[in-house]
Specification:
about 350 residues; alpha+beta; 4-stranded mixed β-sheet; about 25% helix; about 30% strand; globular
Length: about 350
């Protein structure tokens, strides 16, 4: 295992921020993971796992050890007439894994196509899109505890999944590296096409049976039309979570804003479209220096070239304050601020 010093993270975070790590290494085996943990202990520095760098905002240089997860491999560990259990290592690129499963005809994650990042990071965030969340197909994962130097298998319940949240984002933040994730996928897929834009596109296919590949292709087209390519314009996708409010709060808001976008949840609460709230406050397309709000999607903050993490964070705080002042709604960040 090679440890590098003062290593540039510019190409390893999708905001394209010009930040360095005091120490940096890539791990491709459990032995290298153990070595990385020992190195951080010896140097008495903090340790952070970095996958695809797609959900992180660095406020400045990282003073500790950045560990890049490069564990590779996909294997079938069990199957029944209806399901296949697929174990995928944490360093695999998420969308490559989705493409692999769609190619095999295994359904359940096609709606999560084109979400950037590595497999090891997706349970932390409990990623979701177009009516599907990671925990819908999640079976279990393996995680290595840095301090205890031991591996633990986490069931779905133990992961404490919530809306864009998990135990790894809260109680166990920074304490583990997720080495593998196992999914239970459908061998006889049931398509999830309830999202309006997907329904509209699928309605145009009338001469044959609709497949999970059709759903994947449509989701990719939708994402590309709504979200900027981070290789062209630095961003981390949706910067804020969609806030959840009570039915009473929604009724109050509808009095003044009858057109407000909302989605009822199973518990009777309502999820509001954060992008709509931000847009209504006039932020779409605004910029402060090289930190800005995307011109097409107000939920996305962007780096026009030379913005710092703090400049983007300050812009985010201004947006949060203006949304609260106007609607009385608190916006939480989806991006991990370091």
């Amino acid at each position: 295992m090679k440890i590098m010093e003062n290593y540039s993270l510019k190409s390893l975070n999708t905001f394209g921020l010009k930040v360095d790590a005091k120490y940096f290494t890539v791990v491709a085996s459990l032995d290298e993971i153990k070595q990385a943990g020992k190195f951080a202990d010896k140097k008495a520095v903090s340790l952070m796992v970095l996958g695809g760098g797609s959900n992180v905002l660095f406020k400045g240089d990282f003073p500790g050890l950045i560990v890049r997860n490069n564990l590779k491999g996909i294997s079938v560990i069990d199957e029944t007439d209806d399901f296949v259990f697929v174990k995928v290592m944490g360093g695999e690129v998420w969308d490559d894994f989705v493409s692999f499963c769609v190619g095999k005809g295994w359904g359940g994650i096609e709606n999560l196509s084109l979400i950037p990042g590595n497999v090891g990071a997706v349970p932390i965030q409990n990623i979701g899109a177009y009516g599907v969340e990671l925990n819908d197909t999640f079976f279990e994962l393996e995680a290595w505890f840095w301090e205890k130097s031991e591996m633990k298998i986490f069931s779905k319940n133990e992961c404490e999944f919530g809306y864009r949240s998990s135990i790894f984002k809260k109680k166990l933040k920074g304490e583990v590296i997720i080495t593998s994730v196992t999914f239970r996928l459908d061998k006889k897929p049931i398509l999830n096409t309830g999202y309006g834009a997907i329904e509209n596109e699928l309605a145009m296919i009338k001469d044959r049976e609709i497949t999970i590949r059709d759903v994947r292709n449509i989701v990719i087209d939708i994402r590309r039309s709504k979200l900027p390519n981070h290789e062209v314009l630095g961003n981390a996708g949706s910067f804020f979570k969609n806030p959840v409010v009570s039915s009473a709060k929604l009724s109050e808001l509808k009095t003044e804003y009858p057109e407000i976008v909302s989605y009822q949840q199973a518990d009777g609460s309502y999820k509001l479209a954060a992008g709509w709230l931000i847009d209504k406050c006039g932020w779409k397309g605004k910029r402060a220096g090289d930190a800005g709000v995307h011109t097409e999607q107000a939920l996305v903050l962007v780096n026009y070239g030379n913005a710092t993490g703090n400049e983007i964070l300050n812009l985010a705080k201004e947006i949060q304050q203006s949304v609260f002042d106007r609607f009385g709604v608190i916006l939480e960040t989806e991006v991990n601020v370091v």
